Amino acid sequence: MGFKICSYLINRIKFIYQKIFVKRLKVGFIGLEESGKSTMVYALFENKYREDIGSSEVRVSKHIIDNVEITIYDIPGNQTSQSKWDHYFKKVDVLVFFQSLIDSPEKIERSREALHGLLYRNMWMKKSLLILGTKNDLPEAIGCKDLIIQLDLVSIVDREVACYSISSKNMVNVDLVRDWLIEQATLGAESNM
């Protein structure tokens, strides 16, 4: 009997602690196929590189960093899954859009159209946006400035937009992404007070 009471009290204290001190952030990872979304999940939270882990279904994972519980919705970028983007846009607090820096100009144009279409269809929801140019470790990768121009990011003026050039393979700028997510959770917690 005494053990059950102690166990109950410990669970209640943990519950109260998490409600008061742990911030929560729901993040949508979107982008066309083979843009590095799933690979980034492993780089961000497990500090390791995994290649060829694409999926045809949404993967949901929870991770805790610096007292922030981050729920990642890793949404596939194939044509059939893009219809889910709007649904998950409504569920998340912030959006991370992935673009491979080695894609052809035609594929980058498709990405631009997909991103701007998503933002236009959901224009009443002003969610912070992080653009990640992936695979910057490859010699044919374009620069971050070129990505900003090709995705026409300067025309997005109604929300916070950040753009980083990253490499999940070499762990380049992964720490900046982690810091940005924690900052967004902190800003979200302050605005809810």
UniProtKB/TrEMBL annotation:
Sequence positions that bind GTP: G31, L32, E33, E34, S35, G36, K37, S38, G77
Any Pfam family matching the protein: Arf
Single GO MF descriptor: metal ion binding
Sites where the protein binds Mg(2+): S38
Keyword match Nucleotide-binding: yes
Entry keywords, A to Z: GTP-binding, Magnesium, Metal-binding, Nucleotide-binding
Protein name: ADP-ribosylation factor family protein
